Amino acid sequence: MNASAKTDDGGKLALAARFRELLRADQIIVDAESKRPYECDALPVYKAMPLLVLVPETTRQVQAIVRLCYELKVPVVARGAGTGLSAGALPDSNGVLVSLARLSRIIEVDPDARIARVQPGVRNLAISEAAEEFGLYYAPDPSSQIACSIGGNIAENSGGVHCLKYGLTVHNVLGMEIVTAEGEILQVGGRGLDTAGYDLNALFIGSEGLLGIVTEVWVKLLPKPEHARVVMAGFDSVLNAGDAVSAVIAAGIIPAGLEMMDGFAIQAAEDFVNAGYPRDARALLLCEVDGNEDEVLEHVERIESLFREFGATSCRVSRDDAERALFWKGRKAAFPAAGRISPDYYCMDGTIPRRKIGAVLEAIQQLSEQYGLRISNVFHAGDGNLHPLILFDASVPGELHAAEELGGKILELCVQVGGSITGEHGVGVEKLRYMLAQFNDAELAQFHAIKDALDPAGILNPGKGIPTLRQCQEYRSIDASGGAKR
Amino acid sequence: MNASAKTDDGGKLALAARFRELLRADQIIVDAESKRPYECDALPVYKAMPLLVLVPETTRQVQAIVRLCYELKVPVVARGAGTGLSAGALPDSNGVLVSLARLSRIIEVDPDARIARVQPGVRNLAISEAAEEFGLYYAPDPSSQIACSIGGNIAENSGGVHCLKYGLTVHNVLGMEIVTAEGEILQVGGRGLDTAGYDLNALFIGSEGLLGIVTEVWVKLLPKPEHARVVMAGFDSVLNAGDAVSAVIAAGIIPAGLEMMDGFAIQAAEDFVNAGYPRDARALLLCEVDGNEDEVLEHVERIESLFREFGATSCRVSRDDAERALFWKGRKAAFPAAGRISPDYYCMDGTIPRRKIGAVLEAIQQLSEQYGLRISNVFHAGDGNLHPLILFDASVPGELHAAEELGGKILELCVQVGGSITGEHGVGVEKLRYMLAQFNDAELAQFHAIKDALDPAGILNPGKGIPTLRQCQEYRSIDASGGAKR
Predict the structure, then answer these.
(1) N or C, which terminus of chain B has less Cβ within 10 Å?
(2) Nearest to B450 among A111, A168, A453 (CB)
(3) What integer pLDDT is reported at residue B424 of this predicted model?
């Protein structure tokens, strides 16, 4: 234990002593330096130091931890790989942080049932790697898939560039073992399509750690598509590109992925990874189709012709898997690419109806000018999930605040046009106040009823995901006073 | 009002008078004869007469009804088309039955967003009919799709022969407007893939009317597949057919539907509709593939060769859509076909892992012999959802009871091999006691917590879906005394 631990108060050490009855010493992190890596997730504008970090290795240990926390009324925040973008894994400074990183076993890959049984700390990509020998893979592929854990994917109901065709986490997780807020172990969902009783599996997915802690997961595996190609097209306006997106969908094609980047994002990505993007384009579409080879080629031809009809200024089709990977590389690197050209960036996540793409991008451009902050737009266009990256410099007084305010305006815009304040990154701490833009009192009351029912002591990830009544009052009084401060 | 109404007690008429403040006289059914059609759903072994039947025409009227019932603590049972098979719409004799039949408007078909917005009383097939002009359709297709309503589909999370590829109702309903147990109107889900907050949309789907009443629905529409074929193969044993099912899935093919019928079901269907089934086969597989023509033909060839490899004694491929429809006609008529050869039949609904198909069918055969009751097996084989039809004669003393007991043994068998007591028909009243075979106390406690949270007065469809604590005690004491009576 290093020097900084000496500053811990007696309460913290007494708490650690209680956990020593349940865990080995090396599973309990007390000193500040060792706790530091856990003080934030991938949205580091929010930081907090937990009393303790606990690193259980079994379901039983997770259960024992939660039971003790329930007894002591100590908040519990579960953490996967810490790649979340809405501060969902932000520690509670009066609670313990439970890292699920050591529950990282792939228990079983069953090629016949096309199911993998894994622990929550398993990395998203590791599932597909384990299934590869059977020609199978796990479909949801968040940009962070090399690092992010399936448990975190469940907490946020993560998507990825292929969710247009293959769905979000909720569509690919069949069942789970859960430790409840009161420390019971139960199974939700199952190995089949449906089960009796309420759909607790879906209820827990995307609930951001507020209803229980996942300790085992059954995921659906899919056969790897025989063939896949990407059509990449440049456009001289986002409006044209937006119309082209609608045209592809209206033509009855379900692309495996359909992504859009604006001029700013194209240049940033191209500077970073040389994906061969048309630098002069104002908008880029990447449209992947997969399946049987003939079908893919037929669809590629159709998509090319639609793109040209809607004003594509350039159009290329990936010739092989290496080129396909290269086309995607730029898109997947869009966030770090923004990081190279701006000291800080703030990634938003909202959804809008597909047909509103052009109009919303124009409105975002106006907001960008109004706030004097550049915005780089990358976009799951096929399912209307936008990710504006607001570029700012936190060392310039007021810029962080302006970025946050601008982000809020974008989310309110999403709700106004019939969309949602989050597509796949979750609400976490970041978007709590915008929940009021999306949900009315009756809807919020239902959320609170569910939370109270499943976590009566309110110990699981308190203050995240769903604004509490107190938070609602606070946000409303700020709004009423004309401010949009957070 | 006819003579029978005179036997109504004053309380009932007083209740009717209260509803007269909310509804026109012709929307309130008081007399017994007019209420008769509502006394059961498609599982007529359970019957009850409600105090009143109410026929609202708008969301506001549904809201007003629920508010009054909440005030008076009167049970409310919502009913769609009454095609349910687990007595989920059985009236409460101390409550009102709310028929949603007149909320039957298709409000909007949006081909661009591929969404239809409909009222709950709209028939399943009517959605596809309305979307046809845009080349779109609604995928879930329960056998009763001509008659069943989308509201009822939501209550039971219905599937159909194509759910292997296209999913159940929960995978195809994006959002809903709900009237809560306290009479609030709220929206769950949305028009996009995901929304913020807990996934109440999924929670409500399959909740059998216990958590709220649906008054509007957004369903996902899919482009109609370009091409589809059915491979029909006879086998001389259910074991071989079961192995062939696993082989198709293991080959990386995702059929649009993969159905199995045993010898008894084949003959009954063939006698009824002349679908061209091989009468001497002990098992029949119907495997549909859809998509691009080349892909379909490639898969058809692969499936034929796998079927022959696993011992198919006959194999035919549909030549055109008319023949494809004919092949399906026998399968879809399997239930009425059983009705022609037996005075009564009892349709079970359980799921099992695919690889257990052969073993479970053999065990069902043994149970059939043990109970002296014939069983006809039809089966969504691809997703392991079995529908044994137990044939009996209710006029023979003891046969109904024996059929129910035999049905229970089959469900327990499903749970033992890792399956579920319902695949798509719901629990209703019928399977309440078997919930104890599937869920432990902690799991049942979570269900109760959810119910109490969303319906604190317990007025919505009481006594269905989830066994209450009292019912649990009752079932356990019966089990403890060695009986299996219901």
Answers:
(1) N
(2) A453
(3) 83
- 3-class secondary structure, A400: helix
Cβ atoms of residues A56 and A27 within 8 Å:
yes
Q: Residue B380: closest CA among chain A residues belongs to which residue? A: A193
Q: What is the mean pLDDT of residues B117-143?
A: 96
Domain presence at residue A483 = no
Give long-range contacts, CB 8 A cutoff, 24+ apart: B320-323.
Answer: B321/B228
Residue A6 has pLDDT above 50, yes or no: no
> What CATH number does the domain containing B456 carry?
3.30.70.2740
Please check whether residues A217 and A239 belong to one and the same domain. Answer: no
In angstroms and rounded to an integer, the radius of gyration of the C-alpha atoms of chain A is: 23
Is A482 a domain residue? no
- Which residue range(s) make up the domain with B414? 342-486
**What was the pLDDT predicted at A486?**
34
Answer whether A439 sits within 8 Å of B196, measured CB to CB.
Answer: yes
Judged by a CB distance cut-off of 8 A, whether residue B185 touches chain A is: yes
Report CB contact under 8 Å: A195, B250: no
Do B219 and B118 lie in a common domain?
A: yes
Q: Does one domain contain both B60 and B196?
A: no
* The residue to which tokens 């219905």 are assigned: B158
- What is the average pLDDT score of chain B? 92
Answer whether A389's CB lies under 8 Å from A349's CB. Answer: no
The Cα–Cα gap between A225 and A231 comes to 17
Q: Into how many domains does chain A fold? A: 5
Q: Is residue A479 part of a domain?
A: no
Interface of A with B in 34-73 (CB under 8 A): none
Q: What is the mean pLDDT of residues B322-346?
A: 90
pLDDT at res. A481: 67
Cβ under 8 Å to B: A residues 139-178: 157, 159, 163, 167-168, 170-171
Chain A hits for B202, CB-CB cut-off 8 Å, are 170, 199, 202-203
* Residue in chain A lying closest to B437 (CA): A196
- Burial string for B49-61 (b: 16+ CB within 10 Å, else e) reads ebbbbbbbbebeb
Query: A6 vs B346, which has greater pLDDT?
Result: B346
3-state secondary structure of A478: helix
A421 contact residues in B (CB cutoff 8 A)? 196
Contact A194 B353 (CB under 8 A): no
Chain B hits for A222, Cβ within 8 Å: 254
Please check whether residues B89 and B173 belong to one and the same domain.
no
* Minimum distance, in Å, between the CA of residue B464 and any CA atom of chain A: 10
Residue A81 forms part of a structural domain? yes
**pLDDT for position B281:** 96
Say which of A250, A253, A385 has its CB closest to residue B111. Answer: A250
Domain identity same for B239 and B335: yes
- To 5 degrees, how large is the angle CA A154–CA A159–CA A165? 125
Verify whether the Cβ–Cβ distance A420 to B192 is below 8 Å.
yes
Strands (E), B138-276: 173-180, 185-189, 212-220, 222-223, 227-235, 257-262
Q: No. of H helices and E strands in chain A?
A: 17, 19
Q: Are residues A407 and A463 in the same domain?
A: no
A250 at interface of B, judged by CB pairs closer than 8 A: yes
Type of residue found at A134: F
Both tokens assigned to B214: 């649906």
- Could A355 and B113 be called an inter-chain contact, meaning their C-beta atoms sit closer than 8 Å? yes
Whether chain A has a CB inside 8 Å of the CB on B223: the answer is: yes
Return the number of other C-beta atoms located less than 10 Å from residue B169's C-beta.
28
**CATH number of domain containing A234:** 3.30.70.2190
Domain boundary residue among A312, A333, A354? A333
How far B1 CA sits from the closest chain A CA (Å)?
A: 40
Q: How far is A207 from chain B (nearest CA, A)?
A: 5
Global ipTM = 0.85
Interface test with B, best of A70, A184, A194 (most B CBs within 10 A): A194
